[in-house]
Design a protein that fits this description.
By secondary structure, this protein is of the alpha+beta class. The protein is 48% helix and 17% strand.
Length: 529
């Protein structure tokens, strides 16, 4: 009877086949990212349809660039985005754990254990894991430990030789913009500039725009800047529909042109009347307006992105005005200096001595766009880690130490359970070992030997013993400064277990109506093109 209800053009996978199909998709995503984990992780080269190249080992960047089609795989990608949004790092860990939870659940399915039993056991294990993490966490109370956290986050991003410099820069930036334990990372603008070396990257208290002044006759430097932020285009806007103008003699044409010129000149007079000597416009500026602005000694920049406009507004105290006719003197912001500076082959606009010193810019320099972009991703990860740590001031040992300790304690917890849920908790615990095993594999170490040594150390009471991949030794990573924020681990385990439980509960996948030019077969859905 049910078969007659479903559209004949659709496709359907039911029962264990549906579950296994979804698990396979999740595992493919997990396996794709596993080689990027840790300081010795490899990079991926992503080539888009236009031939553009991105070289990175950042989990969420890889997943965003991949053209993922499978519905279950899309659910895995979603947890990576959630991880990035909530804590700024740990996306690869979250995806790998989700894939491993599902892979191990498949073993239980092979033993005829019902998905409901598995999901119940996984839920118990997840709750217990969060509880154990709270016990393992250590309070931090020094700037030095924040530097260690930033340093750990930047490993494997191609800037190991400059970890100390960037880590100190990141902690300084967070200290400046932070209010108590809250850090708004939007107050830290990251700007890229090709040219010079990475070593010359710097932290600037103020805002930098990858834009130059509109006209070479404009002042290149303005002191005691009074800044106007305008959304409206300073141009003559043509009619939306086609229009014709009848001109019977040259005088009429000249009058028409003069009227346009007069309208644009009045716009500049209005700007001058506010007292502004620096102008940032979100849209375009006509060449005639540019000429009059230069004549008036006003520094102007056009087509400034909305996010940059908001950064300038926050830094200078200016209000973003929608229409020129609504501008008031109180809408202007202030800065001690606005100037243009040649950086490499391009010029950039600097806004310094701002009213709000809690807005700043990290300027990243480098030889190629690919290198600079990867450094930017590394800095964003480190900023996220430091901000996450400040929220609760708690960290755990890195290098796979916390995962091994969690695994051992969860297995002890499983022994106290009765029923088949115990098997699910044990598989959940075994899944956590995937992190230190992968770290060892990516560093060229023998994963079995490493895992055996780690377990022996933890059984002997070394709860913080993990992998120090910089010297290929198993040692106390907390003492060695390889530490990670507690929030990153709790979010990764929570997100990974939630998506694994959701996928395991799916026993019927029904394809939508066939679209033109698209396959309607669920089994044909690739993970990516």
């Amino acid at each position: 009877m049910v078969e007659n209800v479903v559209n004949e053009e659709g496709d359907r996978i039911r029962g264990v086949d549906a579950t296994r199909n979804n698990i396979l998709a999740a595992r493919v995503i997990s396996e794709t990212l596993k080689t990027t984990l840790g300081p010795m992780g490899m990079d991926k080269m992503l080539v888009d349809r236009a031939g553009g190249i991105t070289v990175t080992n950042d989990g969420v960047t890889i997943l965003d660039e991949m053209e993922i089609e499978h519905p279950a795989a899309k659910m895995i990608v979603e947890i990576a985005r959630t991880q990035e949004k909530e804590v700024g790092d740990g996306t690869t860990t979250a995806v790998m754990l989700a894939g491993k939870f599902l892979e191990n659940a498949e073993r239980l399915l092979d033993k005829k254990i019902h998905p409901t039993i598995i999901t119940r056991g996984y839920r118990w294990a997840s709750e217990k894991a969060i509880e154990i993490l709270g016990e393992l966490a250590v309070e931090i109370d020094s700037e030095e430990e924040l530097v260690k956290i930033a340093s750990t986050a930047m490993t494997g991003k191609g800037v190991e030789h400059l970890r100390e410099k960037f880590s100190e820069m990141i902690v300084e930036a967070v200290k400046i913009v932070g209010v108590g334990t809250y850090v708004n990372l939007e107050d830290i603008k990251i700007e890229k500039q090709r040219g010079k070396s990475i070593e010359e990257s710097t932290l600037i208290q103020g805002v930098i725009l990858d834009k130059e002044r509109l006209n070479i006759d404009m002042p290149s430097e303005v002191h005691d800047a009074r800044i106007l932020l305008l959304e409206e285009a300073l141009e003559i806007i043509g009619p939306e529909t086609e229009a014709k103008i009848s001109v019977t003699d040259p005088a009429q044409l000249q009058k028409f042109i003069s009227q346009e010129d007069e309208i644009l000149k009045k716009k500049v007079e209005t700007i001058k009347g506010t007292g502004a000597n620096v102008l940032f416009v979100q849209r375009g500026i006509d060449d005639v307006v540019s000429f009059y602005l230069a004549k008036a000694g006003i520094y102007a920049v056009r087509r400034v992105p909305k996010t940059d406009m908001q950064s300038i507004a926050k830094a200078t105290g200016a209000k973003i005005v929608s229409k020129l006719g609504e501008v008031e003197v109180t809408d202007l912001g202030s800065a001690s200096k606005v100037f243009e500076k040649l950086e490499g082959d391009d010029s950039m606009t600097y806004i310094t001595g701002c009213k709000n010193p809690k807005t700043l810019t990290i300027l990243i320099r480098g030889g190629t766009e690919h290198v600079i972009s990867e450094v930017k991703r590394a800095i964003k990860d480190a900023l996220g880690d430091v901000a996450a740590t400040l929220k609760d001031s708690k960290v755990v040992a890195g290098g796979g130490a916390v995962e091994i300790e969690l695994s051992l304690r969860l297995k002890k917890f499983a022994m106290s359970l009765k029923g088949r849920e115990r098997l699910a908790v044990e598989e959940f615990a075994s899944s956590l070992e995937f992190i230190p095993i992968t770290l060892a594999e990516n560093a060229g170490m023998d994963p079995i030997d490493v895992l055996t040594e780690l377990k022996a150390s933890h059984d002997a009471g070394g709860k913080n013993v993990g992998l120090n991949l910089f010297n290929s030794k198993v040692e106390d990573t907390m003492i060695k400064g390889i530490i990670e924020p507690l929030l990153i681990k709790t979010q990764a385990i929570t997100s990974a277990s939630e998506v694994a439980i959701m996928i395991l509960r799916i026993d019927d996948v029904i394809a939508a109506r066939k679209l033109k030019g698209k396959s309607d077969k669920i089994g044909d859905m690739g993970v990516y093109d």
